[in-house]
Structure prediction request, 129 residues.
Amino acid sequence: MRQEKIPETINEYITNSPVNIQERLKKLNETIKHTAPEAKEKISYGMPAYTLNGILVYFAAHTNHIGFYPYPSAVEAFKKELTGYNTAKGSIQFPNDKPLPLDLIKRIVEFRVNEKRQNKASKPAKVSK
Prediction:
């Protein structure tokens, strides 16, 4: 579901989305913000995104679902709990005619936060010249 003009903020993205899914997008956004308060908001590739040592998650409104993009590692880690949803390598589709699984989304975001922190901790410090 392409928006006419690329929004500059996540709130603008939500406000410009169809009225019937704005509340769902707000709940998803609030869940991410509360679960990862240190993550920064941005629009990337025209979609809402959160960053923490790189991209944490993306999400986007579509005609029949909300796409949630937590990277392949998270989809793999939660594959048993995601059996009722359409998934691909790094994406999950939450149908617009069913309640959002906010607890599951929270746990996926927590997984990604931990993953991003571990990745940062395992990288050698950059040496300045």
